[in-house]
Specification:
The chain folds into 2 domains: 143 residues, Phosphorylase Kinase, domain 1 (2-Layer Sandwich), CATH 3.30.200.20; 107 residues, Transferase(Phosphotransferase) domain 1 (Transferase(Phosphotransferase), domain 1, Orthogonal Bundle), CATH 1.10.510.10. Helices cover 40% and strands 23% of the residues. The strands form 5 sheets. It has a 5-stranded antiparallel sheet with strand order 2-3-4-6-5, sandwiched between helices. A 3-stranded antiparallel sheet has the order 9-12-13. It has a two-stranded antiparallel ribbon with strand order 1-10. The N terminus is likely disordered.
Length: 263
């Protein structure tokens, strides 16, 4: 799938780290996070934390360097979930009904679990062949995973590129959504902002809110995912709709059919 940067010349992407660095709150790197990063360096999991490459309401992602094969430097991504600004209210709709969460925990422990949830979902994706970043390690609110970039510069989001073959890319993404359902998951926040185009292929990112298909809101979350993808590709001339995508990717199990029928 051929795609080229839209409204972004290469130098602007090279300077993006400097722009992002200025946006990082001091509260992201509090004492507890610094302890984790120091442990990662002291145990040689990484050599250095280089600079931030993206920031959201609940997490900041840094590029880091570690020793790879033949003792050569390679890049990884470090995602740090924010203790101070993570929205418990936003998390609640994903964690209520999730058997892996204990709502009696305080905010810090819940954020740690939120990070663990993304790590676990990424492990499932890797096992089931879903195109998602490879997870390497989780510790407290910190997650180390595959760096998606070329020459040390992160690859672009789907939202940031001009797609030259929308139909082909659409079918690839629907194929990934089928794999996700077959793995027993719903991404629950899938959109053009959570898909990276890396070396010509779509890679689905940001999995913390992902839920099992047994979750009480899984059907609604999957409908929303399908609607977001339909909205994006219909603007590019692809004949698609939320219903068509939903019918194509929804689990075909009897348990799911009964779940939808009962809503």
């Amino acid at each position: 799938m051929a795609a080229r940067p839209s409204k972004r010349k290469l130098p602007e992407r090279e300077f993006k780290p400097q722009k992002e660095r200025l946006k990082i709150s001091n509260k992201v790197l509090d004492d507890k996070v610094v302890e984790v990063l120091a442990w990662l360096i002291n145990t040689r999991r990484i050599e250095s934390v280089d600079y931030p490459i993206s920031q959201g309401k609940e997490a900041v992602v840094f590029r880091a360097t570690r020793k790879g094969k033949d003792d050569k430097d390679e890049f990884v991504a470090i995602k740090i979930f924010k203790y101070e600004t993570s929205s418990f209210k936003n998390m609640l709709k994903y964690i209520e009904g999730d058997r892996n969460f204990d709502l009696r925990k305080n905010r810090r422990l819940l954020v740690n679990d939120w990070a663990r949830k993304e790590y676990s979902n990424l492990q499932i994706c890797q096992k089931c062949g879903v195109s998602a970043p490879k997870p390497f390690l989780h510790r407290k609110n910190v997650l180390i995973m595959e760096f998606l970039g070329v020459g040390g510069i992160q690859s672009a989001l789907l939202e940031e590129v001009v797609v030259e073959n929308p139909e082909k890319l659409f079918l690839e993404i629907v194929g990934e959504m089928k794999k996700i359902s077959a793995a027993g998951l719903v991404h629950a926040d899938l959109s053009s902002f959570n898909i990276i185009l890396h070396e010509g292929r779509p890679v689905i990112i940001d999995w913390a809110q992902g839920v099992e298909i047994a979750h009480p809101n899984a059907n609604a979350f999957l409908s929303k995912d399908c609607g977001n993808i339909a909205h994006f590709f219909s603007r590019l001339g692809v004949d698609c709709s939320e219903k068509k995508i939903f019918d194509a990717v929804a689990p075909k199990t009897e348990a799911w059919k009964q779940k939808v029928a009962g809503e």
